[in-house]
Amino acid sequence: MNAPAKLGPARRREQLSDEVAGYLRVAIMSGTLRPGTFVRLDETAAQLGVSITPVREALRTLRGEGMVQLEPHRGHMVSPFTRDDIADIFWLQGAIAAELAATAARRATDADIDELERLTEDLDAAVRGGEVEPIARAEFHFHRAFNRTTNRMKLAWFLLHAARYLPPHIYASDPTWGQDAVVNHRQLTAAMRRREVDEVVRLTRSQFDDGARRLTSLLDSLGLWT
């Protein structure tokens, strides 16, 4: 995993805590921080360029999510997780996303679909450029625009929070994922043009099924469960 950018000292403490939690969450889900590893306050704070306080608050958040556990007199340790946990996370995201997709297929205007096609071309350009950050950003913008077509922002909010467990840069750094994502989005927008609700839902679910397979395969290759 690449070294994180320094977090700006002027940002609000709550935002810093959220960013630290996000960084640690991705490190855990991508296998960089393995189960049984202790997360050291001072080391993490120094690595991210923040004080110990937002790290402590981030660990409290992750403890509430069951991602770390507090060992008396020893500190916070990454909790065990299994292949079933990965499957459950993606099942939840896929179920929510499928409901949003059905609504998008019915409600999206031609202008909405035009915008999604433009964002797909942005993703294609980013994938061809090969830089991880632009790829991850382009993918985020596509899904944000897609979800906004539904006008079901409460449900989209739940999906956004479930998606916190996805390590986006793992996918964005995989050339085959980027190429497959562009193909998927082109097929998705074409199905939306035709108002093929079932096909839009199928293509949406397939993204999450693919994501689960890729992440499980990565963690298998790292020997996470051996």
Characterise this structure:
The mean pLDDT is 91. The protein starts with 12 loop residues before the first helix and ends in a 5-residue tail after the last helix. A three-stranded antiparallel sheet has the order 1-3-2. The protein contains ten helices and three strands. It has helices spanning 13-29, 41-48, 52-64, 83-107, 110-129, 132-148, 153-162, 168-172, 175-193, 197-221, and strands at residues 38-39, 68-71, 75-78. The chain is mainly alpha-helical. The chain folds into two domains: 9-78, Winged helix-like DNA-binding domain superfamily/Winged helix DNA-binding domain (Arc Repressor Mutant, subunit A, Orthogonal Bundle), CATH 1.10.10; 83-222, Four Helix Bundle (Hemerythrin (Met), subunit A) (Up-down Bundle), CATH 1.20.120. Helix 5 packs antiparallel against helix 6. Strand 2 and strand 3 (75-78) form a beta hairpin. Residues 14-81 form the HTH gntR-type domain. One of its GO terms (molecular function) is DNA binding. This is GntR family transcriptional regulator. It holds the Pfam family GntR.
Distance between the termini: 21 Å
Beta-strand level of the residues, as a percent range? Answer: under 5%
Instruction: State the secondary-structure class.
Output: mainly alpha
Low-pLDDT stretches: none
CATH class of the largest domain: Mainly Alpha
Order of helices and strands: HEHHEEHHHHHHH
Number of strands: 3
Strand order of the largest sheet: 1-3-2
